[in-house]
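agent> fetching stored inputs for the flavin-adenine dinucleotide docking request
agent> found them:
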Amino acid sequence: MDFALSKEHQAFREELLAYLDGLRQSRVIDLDAVSEEYDQDPKALQTKGLAFVRQLGKDGWLGIGVPKKYGGRGLGFVEQWLFLEELKYQSLPTGQLLIQSIIPALVFLASDEIRKRFLPLCMSGDVMFAIGYSEPNAGSDLAALTTRATKTDGGYRINGTKIWTTNAQNATHLWLAARTGAPDSRHKGISLFIMPTDQSGVTIQPIITQADEQTNQVFLDDVFVDEDLRVGDENEGWKFIMAQLNFERLFCISEMLREFHSLLHWWKSHKPADTSAYEFERRELAKVAADIEVCRLMAKRAAWMMDTGRVPEAEASISKVFYSTTHLRASIEGLKLMGPPGQVRFGERDAPAYGRIERGYRATPVYNFGAGANEIQRDIIANRGLDLPRIR
Amino acid sequence: MDLQFSETDTLLRSSAQKLFEERVTLGAKLELDHDGHASTFDQELWREFGELGWLSAACAPDPEAAVVLGILAEEVGRSGCATPFLRAATAALTLARHGEGAVTKRLLEQAALGTQILIPVGIEPGQKTILAEQDGKDFYVAFDRRLVEWAPSATGFIVMAWRPDGRPLLVHFDHDAPGLEIEPVETFDNAAAAWVSLQRIAVSGDAVVGSPESLENIDETIALTQLLSAAEAVGGAEGALDLVVNHVREREQFGRKIGAFQSIQHGLADVKILVDGASLAVWSALSDASLDRSCVGSAALATWLAQRAFQETAVKGALYHGGMGHTRDSHMQFLYRRAGTSHARLGTQWDLLGTISDFYIAPNLDRVTD
Ligand SMILES: Cc1cc2nc3c(=O)[nH]c(=O)nc-3n(C[C@H](O)[C@H](O)[C@H](O)COP(=O)(O)OP(=O)(O)OC[C@H]3O[C@@H](n4cnc5c(N)ncnc54)[C@H](O)[C@@H]3O)c2cc1C
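agent> prediction call returned; pasting tokens
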């Protein structure tokens, strides 16, 4: 038993660090500007971010988890996890959905034709996905979704409304769940499509969150999707949805860690040591640090499990609930430490810890319900982790 | 990177579980726990520990023993067994790694067989409360009424005392050494304890089993022994969780199993998360210790998490047992009580969080400066 990264993993990490360093020095891309843009809205890829992700693609980084026979590097989940952690810690976009969701779902479940068609595009950064699952009346109860895909010549006509479709404004495709079975067929009547967003009938309407981030409502009005763009068999989409969500639930910690380290630097610079307040606060911070460390171990375990052919089920839900609650708590503890200046908004001059804590406080609640609300995850933990009866 | 136990480790765990299931039954616990007032342990079981080689695991200096000892500690915890095993392991590990001379050799040989039960005094993280005064060339040690777990069962004590120059000494006393007073006291757990005092006596010659030189790096050994207590606490939490999950699967109210109520499922899911996190932290640190890597910071972290997980699980476990969990005849109450005394064993919040802060806050103060 050894929890430490292997030599190969460490070498991978060093290679990545050297690459980013090289990129920074060569100024092929202005990484500081990329970070700055990313900081404004980490959930939506914009011009500079997109150029950076394409550069990552050109230099082979988006394909780290793609098998060699499809042109990737054929590395494991641990490497993919390390990649995401490092980039996020440096406030750089990762093409995260590609690496953390779409590529593994394609690699593990899609047909060879779909793989051959989309994996190269994923690896070059020439496709960007948004996830089109949630609907106004199908949130936690996703199997109640009503967006319909009706068979037509050579493909499907899609009608319905998706909501919370994050990054749809920049996406080339929606990873779309639509009903192909009877209205009451629940999860047995859902198919999964890769739907181009430039088709006619697609209307994207922004929704701005309390964290100033954009997500969207997407109206689909008789949108045509080619039959070849159905992933898996008709009515067999649920397993793709579940697999993708499970990959998405393997939360990286570095967004939280970066916020936390910003907080530590502010705290050190503003609170005199050798006072009883300092001794108290360093212990309060230690409690948060301990939980962040647990999040790291949980993410590491998930990556290791997948690399060794195990499927994290309860473990993915455990990691998701603990990450989301810890991240929010870290923001709240930060605000408690800061006193009056803590309320200064992100983007204002002299906002403590660059406003990252208050921004985190506004942005973090999404993790409590995104990728499956925590209550639903607790159901899964009870059912799969503790073998208690299913209640839904 | 390999997060799984080896086949030998898995085998050890299952044989330990089997032994505890057979021997640490509710009846056996109740018998030792005379009306809630325990003073002893199952001597026969102790002999078996010796025969199985479990007692010798702590009597050698090899770092790999950390995993074996961790598994045994976790299983002791899961069973809620009243045994001086962990205390004796702390004394033995300290001697095995830092002891010197013929006395050390003899004590370890006897400890491995189980004929010598060595109980540690003052071998705890952050504790420098026992002082070795210097008078000329001689050192004198004294302490007054320290609560020492399993002292009534000790055949000898291994005491860590600190010299005026801040360097440690390791001292051995037989249980009937002159000047040593052992006053048994009841705790609210099913473990025996005593107030132990030592009148000021000179320590020299054979009594000194460890010198400042041999005790270099003692922090790592103390951290490992702390981790074993954390493993015991995680085992206790896992045991409590098993008990309560079995209970809610069986107990019916309102015409269905109470385990089908979402509030109970979510309460248990929350403690499962804490137990899982603590277990990862304990095993990550133990794997470091077993590979001779430093574990002082990670031990404090794992201990803090284990303490929280055990206490929370015990409280929820008792709650979802309803009235039955509150009775002396319930398995649950043994673990509930053990969780309460675990705070005494695992260290104060102040010390644990202070160490976590040293290792996880201090190095990161200037990591993100823009
Ligand atoms: C900023 C943002 C970005 C998002 N991005 C995407 C995206 O890109 N793609 C996408 O498809 N979706 C996305 N989502 C949607 C997200 O996945 C949903 O919000 C989530 O699934 C919960 O659905 P809901 O909001 O309808 O809440 P509801 O399902 O209405 O839940 C409300 C509350 O009730 C609880 N609840 C519901 N059912 C139960 C039950 N059976 N037992 C106990 N409690 C229950 C929930 O836990 C929650 O606390 C995003 C949401 C936001 C806000």
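agent> quick read of the result: The CA atoms of residues 106 and 116 of chain B lie 10 Å apart.
agent> awaiting further instructions
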